[in-house]
Amino acid sequence: MTSEMVALMNGIEKGYSPKPNFEDGVLNQAILEAVEKSAESGRWIKVPQFMENGRFSRV
C-alpha cells in the first residue's frame, strides 16, 4: 500500500498518472464484460476500441 501512495504522490508532483489508472480499469471492465457475454452466448465478442493514436478516447 505504501508503494502505491508513493507512486501516486510522485505522479502528482511530476505530472503523470501512475499505472494502473482509471483508463486501465475501464478497459479491464470492457474485457470482463465481453468474456461474460461470450460465455453466455458461446460466440466471440468484440471488445470496444478505447484507444486512438495511443491515447484513451471516449467511445
From TrEMBL:
Residues 3-47 form the Gfo/Idh/MocA-like oxidoreductase C-terminal domain. Belongs to the Gfo/Idh/MocA family. This is Gfo/Idh/MocA-like oxidoreductase C-terminal domain-containing protein. It comes from Fodinisporobacter ferrooxydans. The lineage of its organism: Bacteria, Bacillati, Bacillota, Bacilli, Bacillales.
